[in-house]
């Protein structure tokens, strides 16, 4: 008898071998593959899931067939919001954002109307089934081909700047909405909300990966081949540590969004914006001329 793991693996293999089509109980169903990063293991985990389209988004439901606990993939995406989505023959990254409150109820009603089975799963359990929107990560300008490492660095920096602006705009809108609801002179809004948390956590984790990769791989090679850059590289490493400290403050606040001080979060976010903007500007000014001479993607090592 097949275990759930082996059954899922057979579905995954069939999905990938047949352009996103599967037979058996899922034949004709809207199915995607969701790859999350393990909350504890840090390892990738792929799960076949049904989905429903709504207003340009893909919605997935943490039904777990109506079991009393959320599925493992849901806990994974709370820890690591950036996920990989495979649908048909296409694969892309997305930020997974669980809906809350009235929006969650409205989206779930839509899902249950399209796929009544989810309503039956909700009736089996006292927990609220999560509704998760998969927000596709923009791929940038498709027409612009990246041909050297300078262009690749600028592509990453552009994404980071855009994501930080997005989180700041969401935070400002959160404050404005609460102020309008409560009236002038009202206390600051409670909590932060999952939408802000997921987007900020995705930004922070991407920033950490970018800086760690630079420190471990790019900078040692540059220092070896371009000794005149060593002073600039040391300054950039110092700035990485400074930015990481602010990132740590944000991560601590995101750990419990229900009790997080939103005013402090907004202050730290502004500090991140100032320091990261100055850092990225300096890094580009210092490294772009040299990086423009290095092809991307890298070719095979010289014999």
From TrEMBL:
<comment type="similarity">
    <text>Belongs to the F420H(2)-dependent quinone reductase family.</text>
</comment>
<dbReference type="Pfam" id="PF01814">
    <property type="entry name" value="Hemerythrin"/>
</dbReference>
<feature type="domain" description="Hemerythrin-like">
    <location>
        <begin position="150"/>
        <end position="291"/>
    </location>
</feature>
<protein>
    <submittedName>
        <fullName>Nitroreductase/quinone reductase family protein</fullName>
    </submittedName>
</protein>
<dbReference type="Pfam" id="PF04075">
    <property type="entry name" value="F420H2_quin_red"/>
</dbReference>
<dbReference type="InterPro" id="IPR012312">
    <property type="entry name" value="Hemerythrin-like"/>
</dbReference>
<dbReference type="InterPro" id="IPR012349">
    <property type="entry name" value="Split_barrel_FMN-bd"/>
</dbReference>
<dbReference type="InterPro" id="IPR004378">
    <property type="entry name" value="F420H2_quin_Rdtase"/>
</dbReference>
């Amino acid at each position: 008898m097949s275990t759930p793991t082996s059954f899922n693996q057979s579905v995954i293999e069939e999905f990938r071998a047949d352009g996103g089509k599967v037979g058996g109980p899922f034949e004709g169903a809207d199915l995607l593959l969701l790859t999350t990063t393990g909350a504890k293991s840090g390892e990738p985990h792929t799960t076949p899931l049904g989905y429903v389209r709504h207003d340009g988004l893909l919605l997935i439901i943490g039904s777990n067939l109506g079991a009393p606990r959320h599925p493992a993939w849901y806990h994974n995406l709370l820890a690591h919001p950036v996920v990989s989505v495979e649908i048909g023959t296409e694969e892309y990254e997305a930020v997974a954002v669980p809906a809350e409150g009235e929006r969650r109820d409205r989206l779930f009603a839509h899902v249950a109307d399209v796929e009544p089975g989810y309503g039956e799963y909700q009736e089996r359990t006292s927990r609220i089934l999560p509704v998760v929107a998969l927000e596709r990560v923009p791929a940038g300008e498709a027409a612009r081909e990246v041909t050297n490492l300078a262009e690749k660095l600028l592509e990453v920096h552009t994404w980071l700047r855009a994501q930080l602006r997005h989180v700041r705009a969401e935070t400002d809108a959160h404050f404005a909405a609460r102020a309008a609801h409560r009236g002038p002179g009202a206390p600051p809004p409670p909590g932060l909300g999952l939408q802000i948390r997921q987007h900020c956590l995705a930004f922070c984790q991407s920033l950490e990966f970018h800086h760690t990769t630079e420190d471990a791989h790019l900078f040692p090679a540059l220092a070896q081949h371009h000794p005149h850059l060593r002073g600039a590289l040391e300054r950039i490493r110092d700035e990485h540590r400074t930015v990481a400290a602010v990132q740590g403050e944000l991560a601590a606040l995101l750990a419990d969004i229900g009790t997080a001080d939103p005013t402090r979060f907004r202050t730290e976010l502004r500090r991140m914006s100032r320091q990261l903007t100055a850092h990225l500007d300096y890094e580009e000014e210092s490294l772009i001329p040299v990086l423009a001479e290095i092809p991307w993607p890298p070719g095979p090592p010289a014999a």
